[in-house]
Amino acid sequence: MQFFIDTANLNEIREAYDLGVLDGVTTNPSLMAKEGIKGHANVLAHYKAICDIVDDNVSAEVIATDYEGMIKEGKELAKIDDKIVVKIPMIKDGVKAIKYFSNEGIRTNCTLIFSAGQALLAAKAGASYVSPFIGRLDDISHDGLSLIEQIVQIYDNYGFDTEVLAASVRHSMHLIQCAEIGADVVTCPFKVITGLLNHPLTDKGLEQFLADHKKANS
Ligand code: E4P
Residue 27's domain spans which residues? Predict the structure, then answer.
């Protein structure tokens, strides 16, 4: 299972990378805006800065919503670095753009997936990743994890190469449940990954080991 970090904050990306378990980064226009990144040149430079930190898999989202616009923007994003994965929304022109990029050998991440049918369409078009937003589904009383399960099943049935990238992950239990049901990738805030570290018995056990060591060596 791969771990991506869902942020455009360079310090956080560096910190996550330093932990040694990071496989990629996902961004979206809201996350870029949160970091105050604006203006075409600055946006491209910021994606390059992210690529310079991590080994691979930097999802950069197009803003255009028409086919020609998405192709132009996606090509420009893909030129920044081989690590870029062009993120494209699940809309009709987006499906066409995914097919185009798939034929060109440019990786894509189809975003804003909220149903199994959308995931099936994206896979048929040749998306490298689909991003079902599980937290946003949970927020409106729909079961986000069931959607992941459904997509994993469908892709397994037909041997699609498209990877299931669970997005909008809110907490560490989401991550563990995604691992149990076979999501290929999870993207989440760094605190969701560090949340996996915690167990009170680990803290208690370590405290005891150190106390015993100190007693024996004093
Ligand atoms: C990542 O690709 C998505 O854009 C992101 O996970 C959405 O998360 P949110 O629902 O917390 O905004």
Answer: 2-216
Instruction: Name residues whose C-beta falls within 8 Å of residue 73's C-beta, 6 or more positions apart in sequence.
Output: 62, 63, 64
Strands (E), the chain: 2-6, 24-26, 58-61, 84-89, 108-113, 129-132, 163-166, 185-188
131 ligand 1 Cβ < 6 A: yes
Q: Packing angle between helix 116-125 and helix 92-104, nearest 10 degrees?
A: 30
What's the total number of domains in the chain?
Answer: 1
Does ligand 1 lie within 6 Å of residue 26's CB atom? yes
Tell how far CA 160 is from the center of its chain. 19
ipTM computed for the complex: 0.98
pTM of the model: 0.96
CATH of the domain at 118: 3.20.20.70
Beta bridge partners of 2: 185
Instruction: Give pLDDT tens digits for 48-102.
Output: 999 999 999 999 999 999 999 999 999 999 999 999 999 999 999 999 999 999 9
CA of 112 to the centre of ligand 1 (A): 9
Q: Which residues pair with 6 in a beta bridge?
A: 26
Handedness of CA 103, 107, 110, 116 (dihedral sign): positive
Q: Which of 35, 4, 31, 34 is nearest to 17 (CA)?
A: 4
